[in-house]
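Duplicate of #3305? Posting structure anyway:
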């Protein structure tokens, strides 16, 4: 997917040049001309990184960065004028991930953005979860036990993967609904039905396999 950038910059010619180059390099760019519009973009859009000019017409970019850092770890690259060393230092102290001094080349901007995005990615986890004889391939979204495949519906697989990520940990019905259905207001019977079907498929395997245990009053766990 194309990374989504917020470009918060008040110089139209410079902003349009940046946006055109960044889009050509494979990014989606939303441009905001001032702090108010920038705040709206940062809070209402799914943004992967912000390029923030500290000199905005309706307020300090530093204040916008400080407000953002109170609620978010969104990667931010601050942009300053050549002589604004104090602003650069303040931006880094508040929590900017990098900075650029105008004028700068578009190639350098792209390189800085890609470097910050790489650093901000969570560490890679194994694509395979192994719980006893059970092997869950999260990339292929398939599960098997000693070579015997399980035929699972999408929600059954998601439930098995969730439990398999932390064997022995008890997950509540509300946690399962929020993670798999995206809404804790769904009926608990939905989880009970899927646990029942998944438990039956694990039990039907011709080899020993982990089992789903009901912890009365708490939820469910996967036992090797």
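Output from current build:
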């Amino acid at each position: 997917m194309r990374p989504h950038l917020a470009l918060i910059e008040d110089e139209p010619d410079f902003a349009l040049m940046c946006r055109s180059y960044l889009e050509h390099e494979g990014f989606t760019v939303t441009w905001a001309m001032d702090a108010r519009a920038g705040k709206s973009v940062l809070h209402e859009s799914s943004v992967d990184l912000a390029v923030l000019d500290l000199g905005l017409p309706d307020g300090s970019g530093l204040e916008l960065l400080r407000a953002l850092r109170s609620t978010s770890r969104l990667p931010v690259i601050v942009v300053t004028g050549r002589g604004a060393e104090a602003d650069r230092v303040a931006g880094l102290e508040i929590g900017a991930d990098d900075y650029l001094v105008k004028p700068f080349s578009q190639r350098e901007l792209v390189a800085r953005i890609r470097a910050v995005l790489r650093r901000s990615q969570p560490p890679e986890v194994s694509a395979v979860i192994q719980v006893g004889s059970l092997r869950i391939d999260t990339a292929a979204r398939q599960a098997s036990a000693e070579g015997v495949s399980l035929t699972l519906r999408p929600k059954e697989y998601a439930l098995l993967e969730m439990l398999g990520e932390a064997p022995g940990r008890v997950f509540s019905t509300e946690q399962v609904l929020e993670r798999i259905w995206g809404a804790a207001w769904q009926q608990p019977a939905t989880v009970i039905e899927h646990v029942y079907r998944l438990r039956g498929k694990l039990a039907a395997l011709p080899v020993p396999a982990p089992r789903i245990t009901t912890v009365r009053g708490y939820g469910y766990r996967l036992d090797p």
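Confirmed duplicate; merging threads. Residues 156 and 194 are 6 Å apart (CA to CA). The chain has two domains: 4-120, 128-223.
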